[in-house]
Amino acid sequence: MSDLNPSVTRSSLVMASGTIISRILGFARAVLLAAAIGVTTDAADAFGVANQLPNNVYAIIVGGVLNAVLVPQLVKARGGLDGGKGYVDRFVTLAITVFFSVTLLFTIAAPLLVRIYTNGWSEDQLALATAFAYWCLPQLFFYGLYSVFGEVLNSRKAFGPFMWAPVLNNVVSLAGLAAFIAIFAADPTGIRGVSEWGPDRIALLAGSATLGVAAQALILLVSWRRIGLKLNLNFQWRGFGLGPALKAASWSLGMVLVTQIGGLVQTAVASTAAAERDSSPAIASVAAAAIAWLIFMLPHSVVTVSIATAYFTRMAEHNQAGRSKEFKIDLTTGLRVIALVSVISSAVLIVLSYPVARVFVGEYPSTAALGNVIAAFMIGLLPFSFVYMMQRAFFALEDTKTPFIFTSIQIAIHITGSITAGFLAPKEILVVTIALITAFSITIQGLIAYSLLKRRIGTLSGFGVTRSILKFAIAAVPATAAGVGTLWLLGGIGASSFAVDTVLSAVLSCVVVATPMAAVYLATLALLKSPELREIFGGLRGRFGRANK
Q1: Which end is more exposed in the chain, N or C (fewer Cβ atoms within 10 Å of the end residue's Cβ)?
Q2: Cα–Cα dist 391/416, whole Å
Q3: Those residues with Cβ within 8 angstroms of residue 143's Cβ, 6 or more apart along the chain or in another chain
Q4: Are 470 and 339 in contact (CB under 8 A)?
């Protein structure tokens, strides 16, 4: 009997397909952005800092509230006479008010924010980053709308729109980047100095990025109407049960705050590497770290987020009904499926780190610099995805304090390591060192989270998580050997090798190497009689079998 719930499988497939399309377009956007302004250039770092600011500020101010408490509270509210409509109206109105106020405040504070997130930059580069920030920070408002609109849909088990909406964001951004290159020409090596950036260039590049986020948020209102919801503003907040939600969010808000402090320290330390470009142009800094993280997040977003989102609502329902066994089954099934994909994804992207990097950059030194960062980050993929799933388990239990504790430990390790690396590590390998520290600290976080979760819900032995991870690790060994061997037959990853010669050869190499790796991995798991493999393929056959009838 499969532990995979058919509805979860179906929902996860819908979300995963949307995420895959979105990520493909996101990669295309990253490639166009690299062509337009480079990766290891001052302009790229300026835009990278500015475009990341709304994400950071959003996570600090409201991200914790929405992610931690909104779905469980909406599940509760649906038991009311109005099916939760009154609660939705009031919460959304409160959220919109907060989003607008915070966006206005932080947009005004753009110069200060840029200086906080940078270190050692020239006044011209600071001015360019600040100009970008004025255009990018309004994204904060629309990120907030997207999240609250999407979480309401998720609580009603309408998962697809939340994952498909970013496709529209990427389409708009791609159009903006294409227009930028057509009008102002590509500049992947940074020939155009930061002082040459005029208001027209800044407005087109940063404005199109913000327009994409706005489209991503507002398109969800169409899905609201399809499930019978309508946006009705209601400012009568008193006496409607919003207090417990806000109280529960305080610990989650603290968790996100310490996470962003860690991100701030990492960005500030990484930005110091750019000062050494006079002697060595191809040094990874803020922009390279951002691209490497984008690649790192691809398997996480496609699989982990899709599974965790679908199971989150179910686990919240199980908790409300006191179904502890079903809660554990959903949690451990999610962890096992996540591990199945994360292990092979890590192996593939480590082996292919240089060819993947070549897709984004041109010169071999830049390829090597970015490739090393990608490989370092990928070491932490499995524990990172596990932590994400376990956080949702705690949130479903309406426990936001415990995630704050184990996240604070991780951030303390990360900050200490990053600052130490800033003083001791050569600038050429500074960002790689930070990526390794990130992977290490996340691994410690995952072990602590797993231990605390077992204390909270009881033993998880008998559900096969450890046994499954061991099988996946065993299967990854011959798969990695197959990948390394295939890459060697293609000429390796040297400066003149086929795998990193051109963008086309890099893409072809990725396909040629990844295919035998996946085949060997799946074949080995079949020989090991992995139940997860049978469950997934059984779920897929059931899903598509019904679709074809």
Answers
A1: N
A2: 23
A3: 54, 55, 58, 213, 217
A4: no
Number of Cα atoms under 13 Å in the Cβ half of residue 85: 10
Closest CA to 210 of 275, 142, 270: 142
Question: Mean of the pLDDT values across residues 76-89?
Answer: 66
Q: Supply the pLDDT for residue 3.
A: 57
Distance of CA 369 to the CA centre of its chain: 22
Q: Does residue 331 contact residue 389 with C-beta atoms inside 8 Å?
A: yes
Question: Which residue from 385, 443, 390 is spatially nearest to 413, judged by alpha carbons?
Answer: 443
pLDDT at position 479, please? 97
In this prediction, residue 276 has a pLDDT band, given cuts at 50, 70 and 90, of: low
Burial 357-383 (b: 16+ CB within 10 A, else e): bbbbbbebbbbbbbbbbbbbbbbbbbb
Nearby residues of 71 by Cβ (< 8 Å), 6 or more positions away:
151, 154, 155, 312, 313, 316, 395, 396
Over 70: is that where the pLDDT of 436 sits? yes
Confidence band (pLDDT; 50, 70, 90) for 549? very low
Helix H or strand E segment including 473 = helix 465-489
425-448 average pLDDT score: 90
Closest to 313 in 3D by CA, of 73, 17, 84, 18: 73
**Secondary structure of 219-271 as H, E, C letters:** CHHHHHHHCCCCCCCCCCCCCCCHHHHHHHHHHHHHHHHHHHHHHHHHHHHHH
Instruction: Indicate the pLDDT class of residue 548, thresholds 50, 70 and 90.
Output: very low
Spatial separation of the C-alpha atoms in residues 487 and 493, rounded to whole Å: 8
CA separation for the pair 405, 294 (Å, rounded): 27
Per DSSP, the residues of 311-348 read: HHHHHHHHHHHT-HHHHHHHHHHHHHHHHHHHHHHHHH
Q: What share of the chain is helix, strand, coil (3-state, %, to 5)?
A: 80, 0, 20
Tokens 């990608």 — which residue? Answer: 374
> Please, what is the average pLDDT of the chain?
83
Mean pLDDT of 450-473: 87
d(CA 3, CA 531): 10
Asked if the model's pLDDT at residue 49 lies above 90, the reply is no
pLDDT surpasses 60 at 79: no
